């Protein structure tokens, strides 16, 4: 039997603002993202400035691809104003960019513009120049994710938009366009609506019939794909946002609201389905997620306490995290360990030894900056007696590896290599005397 793999389509949405792109934010969040198995991260892109290149490079160095979302009221973004931003992001190796969010909601428009006729056509007049500019810059544009249902029914909005783009002659854009979709599962089964309109022909726009399954669930991609094939004659790639269950969701009044336990179960099942190499190994009640769904991004990892999305964040205001965080990290550790585990039908090989109990991995600088820290490290060294060195290869033979200071001081693949080697990592952030005091107390800023 084939063992499950590590999912490569798994991602998360970062903060719902552009205020958390500092070096200390990267140092805090990168270990968590890696231990959660993230390959993608959705970032809010400001219109006036670029996200710092160091933040982008830090993510990419850890194997995490950013997905940019330029959010604004429909009509606010001018293609000429962001041309340099798009070119810059493309030169940094970013692949995907979306413009606007849920344009089928009244709140996404200025009131006077929403009330006019031909909403979808007017949206395309605004969106298409932006998508074309992104394509010219070397980025792949996303059609913005729509509100499932929404003030203007999303499936009608999408069908009209794709048919209009084809009629207008935007075939090259359609050949590259990726569809965004909100894949929250509400408090319904993950297979709600599986099979799309072909399997559930009784589903109608603006109707809520409890006996009829529709697209408003995790399997929204089945319905959007049916629309794409009918409108364009081809299968289109899709990226899911806000996927999985949301704490407290009670969209179905006849089903209990999502609590912390069911929240963890549902979202872990999605991660397991993404890693499953065959239908036989899928979690119960989850159909195959087609390869056309290239990324599945879970809900927000975190949000500031004043944000409307704070109650849905996996790390709640105040620092407490939802149970799904530890459960997903534990599952990912097992997946990584399985990669190194011998096949049951193959001759058993001895387990790789971990002869080093604790290794303090120092960043290596040409100018010797790490050596200047050795005096400050003395209290920690005397207390814990770690092996000290600069070699990632040697550190990989340790049970526990401690890193300190900025993670950007280490080679980009350091954390990935150590995790894959089965090491338990500790990271203590800070600088100067702050590092010294934390190391002396062995105060762990982030344990992976």
Key terms for this structure?
alpha/beta, Rossmann fold, 2 domains, eight-stranded parallel β-barrel, five-stranded mixed β-sheet, 16 helices, globular
What does it look like?
By secondary structure, this protein is α/β, with parallel strands linked by helices. Helix content is 36%, strand content 15%. The chain has 16 helices and 13 strands. The protein has an 8-stranded parallel beta barrel, surrounded by 4 helices. A 5-stranded mixed sheet has the order 10-9-11-12-13.
Please outline what is shown here.
The model is unreliable at 345-351 and 431-448 (pLDDT under 50).
What are the SSEs and their pairings?
Elements: E1 10-13, H1 23-35, E2 40-44, H2 53-61, E3 65-70, H3 83-91, E4 96-99, H4 111-114, H5 119-137, E5 140-143, H6 154-167, H7 171-176, E6 178-184, H8 196-199, H9 220-232, E7 238-244, H10 260-275, E8 293-300, H11 323-340, E9 356-361, H12 369-372, H13 374-384, E10 387-389, H14 392-395, E11 398-404, H15 414-420, E12 424-428, H16 433-441, E13 446-447
Helix pairs in contact: 6-9, 10-11, 13-16
